[in-house]
Amino acid sequence: MVRIALGLGWRTAHVVLHPVTLFYLLTSPRAQKRAARQYLARALGRAATWRDLWRLYFCFASTMLDRVFLLTGRSARYQVEVTGLETLRAAAARGQGLVLLGAHMGSFEALRAVGGAGAPVEVRMLMHTANAGAADALFDSLDPTRRAAVIALGRPEAMLEAREVLDRAGVVGLLADRAVRGDRMVQVDFLGHRAPFPGGPMTLAAILRAPVVLGFGLWVGPRRYVLRFEDFAPAIDLPRAEREAALHGWIARYADRLSAVCRAHPYNWFNFYPFWGDGA
């Protein structure tokens, strides 16, 4: 697909994306489709149809295709609408860094486009890279600066690097909806049902002690994105005496906002495993 996209252009690749999506939809494991149906039913408020499954898979495939063009600087034909940009502008004007809580939703590469959308700020992601696969290696080869935009967790210097970004009035991003192995889970309400969310991202946000915003790069159509930012907290506070209750409260608040975005843009949250558990 990368060869087709870069050799024959976006239009040809977009046409090819249809049979590719159909192939993966038909051949994906039943458990994967069952998990996707479960999520879609809760986001849509009705039983998910094959058309709904198609739209979820096609939205995911579209963001993957767009990454090829966004990472190689071929973004001239993309339409990017930004809401909540004043939050980033105000922080930049104060010389203050921000922690951005995101999710496995839409496109982070589109979120990086905020630098060209009137708020030129440094954006780095705090994430685990131990399980990076062939796709990550491919995208790194398309944009040599992509790897530099990641602060790899699990190293003693990771938090120091994140603190330096914040001191430069930059943005440190965290994906707060998925856990790595061994992460502590907290059960909160998500789309009307109890679901496990990792405690690690919110704990890291508390350690960084900076204002927190939510950010999502939402795919709304071919080469069209909405970058959505909203205030979340002046800072995450986890007082020692009430640590468990405070952590639960912050994660519940995040899950509530993620629920709202999932209901508004149900095909943008890319979940293909039983998020609530097999029996939920």
Automatic annotation (TrEMBL):
<keyword id="KW-0997">Cell inner membrane</keyword>
<keyword id="KW-1003">Cell membrane</keyword>
<keyword id="KW-0808">Transferase</keyword>
<dbReference type="GO" id="GO:0016746">
    <property type="term" value="F:acyltransferase activity"/>
</dbReference>
<protein>
    <submittedName>
        <fullName>Acyltransferase</fullName>
    </submittedName>
</protein>
<dbReference type="InterPro" id="IPR014548">
    <property type="entry name" value="Ac_Trasf"/>
</dbReference>
<dbReference type="Pfam" id="PF03279">
    <property type="entry name" value="Lip_A_acyltrans"/>
</dbReference>
<keyword id="KW-0012">Acyltransferase</keyword>
<dbReference type="InterPro" id="IPR004960">
    <property type="entry name" value="LipA_acyltrans"/>
</dbReference>
<keyword id="KW-0472">Membrane</keyword>
